[in-house]
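Hi V.,

You were right to ask for the full record rather than a summary. Here it is.
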Amino acid sequence: MPVNPLAKFLAATVVSLSLVLTLSPQAAGFVLVVDLIALPFFRFSARGLVRILVPLAVMAALTALTTALYGRPSGTVFAQWGLIVISQGSIELALAIGLRILAIGLAGVVVVARIDATDLADSLTQLWRMPRRFVLGTLAAFRLLSLFLDDWRTLEMARRARGLGSGRGPIVAISRWSGQAFALLVLSIRRGSTLALAMEARGINAPGPFSYARTAHWSARDWILVGGASFIAVAALIIGIASGGAGV
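Predicted structure:
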């Protein structure tokens, strides 16, 4: 039996919260090592790993660089030029923030990338008894997000075929983009209204028992995953407190 997507979501949330509560490079490094060890079990392709790791690495590096240059100075000052002050404290803070972005981002992106939205909605409504109207409506909206890019391209080709938005320059580009964005908004509202009517016709808000095509199960493997994530979170908090990095 596969792992319940709700268990994956809880595991990623627990680990991420432990790093939010502590600002320690040791704690963030510990969680990052655990994430890298667990990464092969998710069976990502080489291209998939690159698409995940490169944006996270760039974001972490830029944030760490900004913090090192403009962070609150403390300890030994290595260089100073105007508002830029590179000190021992700002470097340590930059290292902690960079590692924390990598650890939280890797744990969240890797786990969420392997979660099926339909399975997660089934688990939320069946196991947590959340309002099905809200959950299934959110699921339907999430499914429609993938159509935005196709709609944008279709609108762009249609406007070009009609000779709209031709020309160069920033004013023409802004006018073309705003008109196309408004057309996409109108199309999205129409599609959302049609979808809402279809869901109401199928009894999404009908009283009485509600049937599901698939039944959500919570197994011992899910408890093990959440328990292991909780253990890692507690260990990260202990490491953060011991290293003097408690607090955000």
